[in-house]
Amino acid sequence: MKNITFAGLLLTALVINTVALAQDNRAVKQSTGKPEETEYWDPEVRVVTSGGTMGMPPSDAIVLFDGKNLDNWVSVKDGSPAKWDLKDEAMTVVRGAGNISTKQDFGDYQLHIEWRAPNEPETLKSQGKGNSGIFMQGMYEVQVMNSYQNRSYRNGQAGSIYKQSAPLVNATSKMGEWNTYDIIYTAPRFTINGGVETPAYVTVIHNGIVVQNHTKIQGTTPYIGAPQNTVHGKGPISLQDHGNPVSFRNIWIREM
Ligand code: MG
């Protein structure tokens, strides 16, 4: 948890502020010439207290994993309790145990999550090394992978929107060291006819470095084939079992 996410949190504040400004920037029909006409006092902006140390959950965060148990997580395939390993305040993929999901569903949010690619032999390469993933609404993958001195296709490496958008830079920590992701996600909106009204957008800050800047998500992120769009409501955060013992810790979310 030592990774500095200060830049990340600054950007987050900027994004949130921009939205608030847009809401508050109401049109003035006929100016009175007074500064007060463009000053809005109500409703008062809600106070949230930071987690103190950077990366720790703010006062209004929902803590999804604090290292103590997997109570907020279930197996995707059958809804049974998540069967990943719990050790040293981290949870680790158990090969074959399958993907896990939060019990709770989310729409728009700010997500903080830390991950670590395991020490694995040099014989493992490209997508076979330290591969996992974070699925927003259970279907749009932000790739987790050991991309430290491990080439793969650029739109499939760590920080990519899998098979859609390569990260702006490669910010991956050395094998065996922790990474942070701060993800700001806006869910897609659909028309009553089943079309996409507005697509999903995502900003990803990896170890304090922006790697996705308000990136448009084209649809699902399949291994083979084009992105698909189906109408859906809120969905869980899912984590991928890709067969590599990738670990996660300190996971919290703020709904927006
Ligand atoms: Mg993956």
CATH topology term of the largest domain: Jelly Rolls
Overall strand count: 15
The first-level CATH class name of the largest domain = Mainly Beta
Spatial separation of the terminal alpha carbons: 24 Å
- Label the CATH architecture of the largest domain: Sandwich
- Proportion of beta-strand residues: 25-35%
What class, by secondary structure content? Answer: mainly beta
Small molecules bound in the structure, each named once:
magnesium ion
Helical stretch tally: 1
How is the quaternary structure best described? Answer: single chain
Q: How many separate structural domains?
A: 2
Mean pLDDT reading: 92
Task: Briefly say what this structure is.
This protein is mainly β. The protein contains one helix and 15 strands, in the order αβββββββββββββββ. The structure holds magnesium ion.
What does this structure look like?
By secondary structure, this protein is mainly beta. The protein has 2 domains: 2-38; 62-255, Exo-inulinase, domain 1 (Jelly Rolls, Sandwich). The protein has 1 helix and 15 strands. The strands form 3 sheets. Strands 1, 3, 4, 6, 9, 12, 13 and 15 form an 8-stranded antiparallel β-sheet that branches. Strands 2-5-14-7-8 form a 5-stranded antiparallel β-sheet, with no helix packed on it. A hairpin with a 5-residue loop joins strand 10 and strand 11. The structure holds magnesium ion (MG). The site of magnesium ion has 7 residues, from strand 7 and strand 8.
